[in-house]
Amino acid sequence: MQKNRSYFVTNGILFSIKDCINGYMYKKLKLESKLGSLRIVEKAIDEVTCDLGISQENYGKILVSTLEGVNNAILHGNHSDPLKMVNVEIAFEKNRLKIKISDEGKGFIPENVPDPTIPENREELNGRGVFLMSRLADNIKYSKKGNTVTMIFKNIVS
Length: 158
Fold this sequence. Notes:
There is one protein chain. The chain has helices spanning 37-52, 56-77, 128-136; strands at 2-4, 7-10, 13-21, 24-32, 85-93, 96-102, 139-142, 148-154. The protein is of the alpha+beta class. It contains 3 helices and 8 strands; from the N terminus they run ββββααββαββ. A hairpin with a 2-residue loop joins strand 5 and strand 6 (96-102). The chain has a single domain (2-154), classed as Heat Shock Protein 90 (2-Layer Sandwich), CATH 3.30.565.10. It starts with a strand and ends with a strand. The chain has an 8-stranded antiparallel β-sheet, with helices on one face.
C-alpha cells in the first residue's frame, strides 16, 4: 500500500478518504471495470453508512442504487474494458448523501431506456437498474453526455 496525505493506492485502486469532520465526509474510489469492483463499492457504502449511523431502510436504498449505477457503468458504459475506469464519489453534508458515478463510455440518453413496468417490457433484462435508481434516490441527475449519474439521498440520519 502506498500512502500520501489523503490518498492511497491498493491493488491498483485509488482511494481518497476524508472522514467525518464537522458533519462533512468524502470518499472517492477509482475502480477497474470488472464486476469484482462491486465488492469494493459495497464495502465503502457499508463503512459510510456505519460511520454516519444511517438507518437500515436508507442503507438498502443507498446500496442498491449505488451498486446498480456502478454495474451499469462497468457493463454498459465501459463494456467491461479493464483499461477504462469507473469513478465513484461519496459525499455527506447537511444530512444529505451525494453519490456520483462516472464511466469513460460514450454515454446514453436516460429517457430512451424503456420503462420496465409496462407489459411489453416486463420480460426484458435491461432497463431495471435505471428504473430502480430513479425510484430509490430522492434526486437523480445525468450529465449531458450521459456517462455520469448523480444521486442524492436526503434526511438519511435521524
